[in-house]
Specification:
3-stranded antiparallel beta sheet, 9 helices, 281 residues, single chain, Beta-Lactamase, 6-stranded antiparallel beta sheet
């Protein structure tokens, strides 16, 4: 029988947590579930692994991991490839994860703009956000050219060696930027800006001109140009970029391509409610 509140009784709101909820994290976690999610995250990172490889990388017993994996497999969260005896992320993991993309207007609003940018520049267009010390790619529209950049949704890339990453770093809060710069950054190519002073100087240029350039800093032979996306509070929450081989994304054409990228990023910003602001330069 449905119960209704009386005029003198306030309507009860649905609760997001139990009445006796404690803010202390260690009292509100399920250790076995926590361990299982660590396994799932590791499998997503390596994409494919045998039971023994996964056990070794996580320092867990194969028997424990097998129970975790078979439980996930019952729900199609992971899959087992019999021919290679390896485990991979399953289809249902994608369906669950895709809810994140559907709940944010950023991905939906940016999609047609990414497509238009790809058609205008002839290069792959990308959308990414900050995820701890990496860029998380949310969406991509690939070029029709046979040689292309590819960052599947869910791909992570280091902030300091990514066009979008450097845009996000350039607009990060000072304390977060200083923490990042104090870490030991990895050098991927001879062009990677992994030394603190060199990276700091480059980020100052990014803020001044309104776009960043990843010039073979993560992968030799690839160049990327990125610009910031702002929300309704005028905060930089994402980045948009075009990327392609240096044989097509020529150094003398970077400024022209940057104009197209900035216009596209501004269009996405406007679509999600950002206030109009003058461009740097």
């Amino acid at each position: 029988m449905e119960r209704h509140s009386t005029p003198d009784e306030p309507e009860r709101r649905p609760r997001g947590r139990p009445r006796a909820f404690s803010q202390r994290t260690e009292q509100n976690t399920i250790k076995s579930l926590d361990r299982a999610l660590v396994v799932l995250a590791r499998l997503a990172q390596v994409e494919s692994a045998s039971l023994s490889e996964l056990a070794q990388s996580l320092n867990e017993s194969p028997a424990t991991l097998y129970r975790v994996l078979t439980t996930f497999a019952l729900h199609d969260i992971v899959e087992h490839e019999e021919s290679t005896q390896t485990w991979q992320i399953g289809a249902n993991a994608f369906l669950i994860g895709s809810v994140f993309l559907r709940r944010t207007s950023l991905v939906d609003r940016s999609r047609p703009i990414l497509r238009a940018l790809m058609e205008r520049t002839g290069e792959t267009a990308n959308l990414g956000v900050k995820n701890e010390d990496a860029v998380l790619f949310l969406s991509q529209v690939e070029t029709h050219a046979p040689i292309r950049a590819f960052f599947a949704p869910g791909t992570l890339s280091p902030l300091h060696a990514s066009g979008i990453g450097k845009v996000l770093l350039a607009h990060a809060r000072p304390e977060l930027l200083e923490r990042f710069l104090s870490a030991n950054l990895e050098q991927f190519t001879p062009h990677t800006l992994w030394e603190r002073d060199a990276l700091r100087a480059d980020l100052e240029k990014v803020r001044a001109r309104g776009y960043s350039v990843d010039d073979q800093e993560r992968n030799m032979g690839m160049r990327c140009i990125a610009a910031p996306i702002r929300n309704a509070h005028d905060e930089v929450i994402a980045g948009l970029s075009v990327s392609g081989p240096i044989t097509r994304v020529l150094s003398e054409e970077v400024a022209t391509l940057a104009d197209a990228v900035i216009e596209a990023a501004d269009a996405v910003s406007a679509a999600i409610g950002a206030p109009l602001s003058p461009r740097p330069g």
